Amino acid sequence: QVYLVESGGGLVQPGGSLKLSCAVSGISVDYVAIGWFRQAPGEEREGVSCISRGDEDIYYGDAVKGRFTITKDDAKNTVYLEMNNLQPEDTAVYYCAAPVTQQCDYGEYWGQGTQVTVSS
């Protein structure tokens, strides 16, 4: 069984920061590509950031480049998404998934999601 559990979401003011965590069990994060996705109300799900097996390739969506950073802790089997300079358009439910496609557009197993709300 593969489980992914996200945490770290919340309410933050524009310009603020949050760090999301995704604790993974049943699959090793150092052996698969893993990523973060988000879905805002009325919008399609989009790939935010994905990191390949071995950390060789990292993808960031155009909307988050320069503001978000994906990292992994292989020992904790956990993936993180550090989000800086958050804006209202970043408001969405954030999901982690693994394994993910190279294009960062699909994942096989999904977490339940964590809400991020950016508002003053």
Q: Quick gist of this model?
A:
By secondary structure, the chain is mainly beta. The chain is built from no helices and 11 strands. Strand 9 (about 90-100) and strand 10 form a beta hairpin.
Characterize the structure shown.
By secondary structure, this protein is mainly β. The chain is about 0% helix and about 50% strand. It has no helices and eleven strands. The strands form two sheets. Strands 2, 4, 5, 6, 9, 10 and 11 form a seven-stranded mixed sheet that branches. Strands 1-3-8-7 form a four-stranded antiparallel sheet, with no helix packed on it. It is globular. The mean pLDDT is about 95.
Helix and strand content put the structural class at mainly beta
Q: What letter string, H or E per element, gives the SSE order?
A: EEEEEEEEEEE
Average pLDDT: 96
Major beta sheet summary: 7 strands, mixed
Radius of gyration: 13 Å
Quaternary organization: single chain
Helix content: under 10%
Q: How many DSSP helices? A: 0
Quantity of strands, as a count: 11
Q: Which percent range describes the beta-strand content? A: over 45%
